[in-house]
Amino acid sequence: MRRNALIALILSLITVPLLAQAPQAHQSSTKVTLPVPHVAALSPAAEQAMASVDPEKIRAHVKFLASDLLEGRGTGARGGDIAAEYIATQFALYGLQPAGDRGSYLQKVAMLGIATQDDSTFALVPDKGEPMNLRNRVDFVAMDETTRTVDDVDAPIVWIGYGIDAPEFNWNDYKGVDVKGKVLLMMVNQPSSGDPQFFGGGKALTYYGRWTYKYEQAARMGAAGVILIHKTDMASYGWNVVRNSWSGERAYLRDDPAPKLKVASWIQLDVAAKLAAACGMNLDEMMAAAQKPGFKAVTLPAKLKLHIVSTVRPFESSNVIAKREGSDPKLKGEAVIYSAHYDHLGIVPGMAGDNIYNGAQDNATGVGILLEIARAFAEAPQSPARSVYFASVTAEEQGLRGSQYLGLHPPVPAKEISLDLNYDDVPPLGVPEQVNVSGAERTTFYPTVERTAKEFGLAIVPDSQPGAGHYYRSDHFSFARAGVPAFSLNEGDKYQGHDAEWGKQQARDYVAKHYHQPSDEYYPEMDFRGDAVMAQFGIALGWQAANQPATVGWQPGDEFAKARGSK
């Protein structure tokens, strides 16, 4: 209660004055009025909602959420709780109905926080030669998912390639090998090929390529642990991202019944190469062989010896949920949901200099857009037929935990949710001329997306980094796993006044210099007009989904169609 009272006091002393000053948040510019595209399928109420979108209101939200006061909005930390209360306060000020627990805006999510301590030891021990004693955060990062405070592993290491069992692609790295109680050395990503029957063909990553799948599958197979080899081009980010993301506390759903690993870890590429050499093998040759059908796992002449010490604490975090009730008596029990995660990495211990990970672009921008969409819907003179929900979720950076919980405990049954539109990491770079809607083509809603983009003058472009697996890295994926048609909205690479190469360079610079780093901060030079355009585009899409006669579905044969089932 004392903690809640402190949060309420902070909000009353700081947030309200900040909001009062919001129109002056960027004093060097006059009020920005964006053009409102004419979307033939929309009502005057929807057009009014789009016209009300104000990029400077988005700026004010981002500036507050990314301030040092919120200490990086860590999951289960004071700053994260303040962010949740701030978002709930905005929903209340807009007049939206609470859609959380017991008449509140907050949906409580019970979690366990696990932090690996510095006195943990990690050694790769070949049968011949000296043990390789690794340095935490420098050579490896590791987490004990079992929630034990002290654990020891002394187990054989099995080279298992990509660690994938995908029967639909006739691929099984686990075939013919018993991995129970063993530690699996594997790569991130997936085998590549131009064959459309081979992991979907092309360069687009499937869920089989994600590190989350690797851990989940290994645990299901009874392995004691996983050692993922970090390679920048395969992971799509540098070692610093892994180190920063895994150096602090990791959060897990408290009641998750899925099996867990004693050691979920990453090592640097050069460490893996040294281990292979100590085993009389060549890592490049091993990785090349793992690309080919018929690969067979190999037990290495080496062991992992690990002593891992963890602190474990139970805590509650919150998803923040509000709704605007639908206008149709028959359809208002169904829903469209907008989502964006509010958490970031918080304060990461053991880092020199600035160790507040403010998360301005990732994902204060998405929350700012979500709040502006919520305000526009709330002030519209009429709501669409279906109810519209606004969900700002926790613990995305921990493995989509908050949206996973929301997908399992939605405000209405998942089969009654027509669509989720998600916002994550939307660059404040100016007015976009392109839009990325990867995953929309998997749904029956795609023709509406295409038509609406054309009416907005936005060219739909594919993900410029398909190998990064973005569809499986943000909160819409949790809705998709629950059967809800879902995708994220984001800008492409082309912005007014610049060529596409300029936009690609901005993206490369962000990943290299700011993604999951303390430098992802708010700057007055940020141009939020593009975020506002994405808000308008999202309003147009969500309004149409909320008004169409039938709910949105998946295309026949899509991997999530089975979870959707039939109404």
What features would you highlight for this structure?
3-stranded mixed β-sheet, 567 residues, alpha/beta, 16 helices, 22 strands, 31% helix, disordered N terminus
Structure description:
The chain has 567 residues and is an alpha/beta fold. Helix content is 31%, strand content 22%. It has 16 helices and 22 strands. The strands form four sheets. It has a 15-stranded mixed beta sheet that branches. A three-stranded mixed beta sheet has the order 20-19-22, covered by helices on one side. A hairpin with an 8-residue loop joins strand 15 and strand 16. Helix 4 (78-94) runs parallel beside helix 10 and helix 12 (446-456) packs across helix 15 (529-547). The two termini are 43 Å apart. Residues 1-10 and 12-29 have low confidence and may be disordered.
Low-confidence segments, ≥5 residues, pLDDT <50? 1-10, 12-29
Number of strands: 22
Based on the structure, what is the oligomeric state of the protein chains?
single chain
- H/I helix tally: 16
Distance between the termini: 43 Å
Helical percent range?
Answer: 25-40%
How much is the average pLDDT?
Answer: 92
Radius of gyration: 24 Å
Main sheet?
15 strands, mixed
Q: State the secondary-structure class.
A: alpha/beta
What percentage of amino acids are in beta strands? 15-25%
State the shape.
Answer: globular
